[in-house]
Amino acid sequence: MKILSTGKYLPEKVVTNAFFEKLLDTTDEWIFSRSGIKERRTASPGETCAYMGTQAALDAIDKAGVTPADIGMVIVATTTPDTVFPSVACQVQAAIGAKNAAAFDLQAACSGFLYSLILAHQFLKSNTCQYILVIGAEKLSAITNMEDRTTAVLFGDGAGAVLVQANNDPHVRGRLLAFDLGADGTQEKILFLHNANTARANAVDLGGGAYITMSGQEVFKHAITEMAKSAQKTLAAAGLTVDDIRCVIPHQANMRIVKVLADRLKVPKEKCFTNLERYGNISAACIPVALSEAEKHYHLQPGDKILMVAFGGGVTWASAVMEW
Ligand code: COA
To answer: Do residue 160 and residue 21 come from a single domain?
Structure first.
């Protein structure tokens, strides 16, 4: 599997920490020192999850020079679909005119994009199709309790996309070298959508009373442990060490998590890409948006190896090493 192009879409509306200082018992100093976040983007009512996913997809398609009709599959990783069904993927498929594509959503919370990318790899490996659009799109503002200072300040909205292509030529650079997937459902209570069943039964919008509930310190501990283990496993499976890695793209939840992860992996700070200062945690959209920005930041060249690693509610985790 080769990444042909990346794309992203972030809503224009910027919500700084100063906004929360007026709304809640919190300070810019607390938010920044505990999380590394300074601002996040918030979608306006017209910016649905499907709209944001579509814009990110169009950005990736434009750059790749592939026509929508060539795309054989659209996978959208999301925890915040606008409707239970149709899926966000079907809405994106229609909006971009990918008339030959199968389409479905995948839900693995913040690990969803990597789960989807790895699944795309398996489909390409089995010659199901030639091109797959893998999108992470989230409208977390729809499920954030703005009265809860322990979660409201952390999350944002946005979408990222990658267009991947089957690469069967061993002489052509660009492949997924190794991956790891995992989950531990016994930890469901440390991060979940409160009232989700009621909201699903009563509302078209997944919001309507359902909101993120989190035990921050527990999530923090599990995130570091599982991401470090998963990344080490994947590096070993690829036969690589961190010295071979051009950059690490970690899930963008908390700068302190990224720093501890970097220490455990013994990766220099400058190799770890972060943008959470500007966007906060956009769940499944974190990694594709970061990938799209890291591509420019590190001037990624064919042969460069990147390590991606995520952790999310469920709990779930995933990592992958890609050759650019
Ligand atoms: N402003 C001010 N005070 C706040 C606050 C806020 N926004 N949010 C929480 N606090 C308070 C708490 O109420 C607590 O007060 P208390 O000591 O009087 O009870 C105090 O700050 C410390 O809270 P704690 O939860 O121990 O802080 P922390 O250092 O663990 O940081 C998180 C909190 C949420 C930033 C951190 O735990 C975290 O990032 N966890 C992982 C979250 C994550 O990754 N989620 C997504 C996973 S995909």
So the answer is: yes
Q: Which residue range(s) make up the domain with 66?
A: 2-165
281 in contact with ligand 1, CB cutoff 6 A:
yes
Cis preceding linkage at 164, omega within 30: no
pLDDT tens digit sequence for 272-312 = 999 999 999 999 999 999 999 999 999 999 999 999 999 99
Q: What is the pTM of this model?
A: 0.95
Q: Establish if 202 belongs to a structural domain.
A: yes
| 70 plus 197 within the same structural domain | no
In a domain, 170, yes or no: no
Q: Among residues of the chain, what percentage have pLDDT more than 70?
A: 96
160 plus 118 within the same structural domain = yes
CB-based contact 212:151 (threshold 8 Å):
yes
Pocket test for ligand 1, best of 220, 230, 252, 282 (most atoms within 8 A of CB): 220
Tell me the CA distances in angstroms from 230 to 87, 109, 213, one per residue in order.
Answer: 29, 17, 25
